[in-house]
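Hello,

Our lab assistant flagged a job as stuck in the queue for most of the afternoon. It eventually completed. Since we weren't sure the result was trustworthy after the delay, we are filing this so someone can double-check. Below is the sequence as submitted and the structure that was eventually returned. Let us know if re-running is recommended.
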Amino acid sequence: MAKKPRRTFFKLMILLAIVGVVFVALAAFRAGPEPTITITSDLPAIGKKTLITIELAEHKRGLSKVGVEFVQGDRVELLESMDFVPRPPWVFWGPYTPTHQLSVAVGREVLQGLKEGEATIRVTADRTGAYLRFPEPTVREMTMQVKLRPPQLQVLSRQTYVAQGGCEAIVYRVGASAIRDGVQAGDWWFPGFPLPGGDPQERFALFSLPYDMSDPDQVNLLAFDDVDNQSRMSFIDKVFPKPVKRDTIRIDDAFMSRVVPAIIEQTPELTDKGDLLANYLLINNTLRKQNADELIRLSRESTPEFLWTRRFLPMKNAQVTSAFADRRTYVYQGNKVDQQDHLGFDLASTRRAEVQAANDGTVVLARYFGIYGNAVVIDHGYGLFSLYGHLSQIDVGERQQVSRGEILGRTGRTGLAGGDHLHFTVLLQGLAVNPTEWWDEHWIRDRLELKLGDALPFE
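-- returned structure --
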């Protein structure tokens, strides 16, 4: 009977010896596999500021030490270094870091002394080692061009005179590296286009000095390359300030009771607040902003072509009841409740008067449109639009080509209209501009045709 315990003890000792040998072998020799390293860039080269994204993965023992270096010639600069805690070589479960993503910025904004030419992003990831095995780290590199010079930029047109709230044109030349160009006026962007009939580097832009801006230093011609290097030039010779006019609009329950329910009904994305004044302010603020954003979106889809050849037409036999860019203070029961800018002309004639297209173009909107009620918007090309609001009747459809003077519908008092009239707006890239310039043949010839020449097919 004594032999059985001895035999069991002997087997246990053999098992422990095997476990010990396995443990020692693992501790001595079990290194982790090579980590996978993926390097990507948000830009095709290194310029002003390029974001490099590095993805690492090692799913057995986990990541260890990682370093990211910038290499150019003899220059080697450590951009990022990280240490992770891998699993010990004898452990097959438990906490570890199998994947990690990190980003580093390179470019002249973050690295001093860059030189044009090639540079390399080098990523080194240590393999997890063992007591007697120390494998070489995994190294991956991405070589990129360093581009530091912005595109060339030259203004070709002269005598740029612009009125506050008005429009102008500029003709210019960009270098071959430019991929985007145009005029920046504060927060507004007016893109450049190839000059019809010009060479590949000749461009033009229609732009505006916004109605609420009088400082020409905020208006610049810009050109960008594919890594965001930027050329900037001021070019305005003279500004004609037009101070904002102020007006007071008194609203009452009778007016709100007429306009608010109809707009709420026609605009299902609005949430009824259950209060007449609150709903009116929702419409006058939130919906007004939504309508403005929609006009900007439409401008981005404008046809890159002059669709008109003659001056714009004002409404026939109409009186101006409210002019462009009046700053309105809204008063209810003696209290100021809101302030908005009236960005168009209110034109009144007879009730349900015919509304004509101001110029040739394509109808891009013909429906109920928020604060404007029944409205029509026409694209005249290169981001220039006209808007006709508060209509009682719409006689055209979207995508329809219309001719100058063609009947679009009839005046009314839909939307936020106090009485029967036409709200007429001219927009450039979604920004409301003064329509009177576009009604004026001499202004078109002096400010546009003299600069654009044969590129503008003006009769």
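-- support follow-up --
The delay was a queue issue, not a problem with the job. The result is valid. The longest helix spans residues 3-29. The radius of gyration is 34 Å.
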